[in-house]
Design goal:
Layout lengths: L1 E5 L6 E11 L4 E18 L8 E6 L5 E2 L5 E6 L3 H8 L6 E3 L6 E3 L16 E2 L7 H10 L4 E5 L10 H21 L4 E6 L6 H11 L5 E6 L14 H9 L3 E4 L20 H21 L2 H4 L5 E3 L6 H13 L2 H5 L9 H7 L1 E4 L5 H11 L4 E2 L2
Parallel strand pairs: 6-10, 10-11, 11-12, 12-13, 13-14, 14-15, 15-16
Antiparallel strand pairs: 1-2, 2-3, 3-4, 4-5, 7-8, 8-9
Length: 375
Amino acid sequence: MQILDNSTTPNLWWYSLKQLEEDNSRKQLRYSKNPCLVQVKSIYPICPLHPTSYHISIFLSSNIIMTPTKVVDVHTHMYPPSYISLLQSRSTVPRIHSSPSGDRLIILSTDDDSSLSPSARGRPIGPEYSSLSHKLSFMDTHHIDISVISLANPWLDFLPAGEAAAAARRINDDMNEQCTIYPGRLFAFGTLPLSGSVEDVVDEIRRLKDLKYMRGVIMGTSGLGQGLDDIKLEPVWAALQEQKQMVFIHPHYGLPNEVYGPRAGEYGHVLSLALGFPMETTIAVTRMLVSGVWDRHTQLNVLLAHSGGTLPFLAGRIESCMLHDGRLKQDGKLQGRRTVWDVLKTNVYLDAVVYGEAGLKAAIEVSGADRLMFG
């Protein structure tokens, strides 16, 4: 792509591009052989995890804006063979329970009840969770060019401290090796040994930099066990910033069952998934904001699952409460701090797993269209 002439209008340039044709089967734009001039409205990486994929909005003579782009799915989970083996070897949650009706993954203690029918215990775990051919077939069916795969919750949080580092190395090597089978189609988020020592976690962050297909790390909201505002995480945040690793923050633990009331059991997983997961993420990130994580680590970038939970809707309230809190003023924590809005527009990316247009609009409003990612 060659710049021919800068326009005097801010943020508008002329580019020499190849003639654009519409591929009706995918409703995307493809290039043909004949060059032409088009005026560009905006250009930015569509996915920071795949910097050669760009979102380009262009003005054509008909004033229709058309956008050629690669579709990069940043929120898609897989279980590599080493993790499947680990879960199959366990007799306590999380584990894979085998039954005549098929294998089922049990990750919640409330589901690990022998009095429940097999179909009510956990969820089925078939090849769609572990087979690369199934993954690529799904991608092709839904016109996804690239997937950044990640281990699903609860990751390695449950392992004894002495086993975590070796398990993380084994699983991360496994994920990276799987990506080599379909080069250019698959990348991955690494998994950290967060139940181990801080030194083990930092060592794995640095090691991931040498794995070709790794594009960051995924972690839950418990951190080392005390939440993401834990001061013991400082070396971890520093290492992630130093290595320029994206942090994909994903919920797992939800809220205490008591908040759902005595009839919660009648509602299946609706309350825990629809409300517990988003609120868990919102609380975890708010604790990071209040404790000043991004004031100390200004280049730390995070991707928040499920469009940040309720963060887009509550950001203004969180900012106001922080600004007027007497304890924070008394402790001098408001001096020189970055606002919630600044962090959201500078350090935070959001996926699009929100299931509604209103939620997507809120996500775009708080972080910007260039920071809302497919997934």
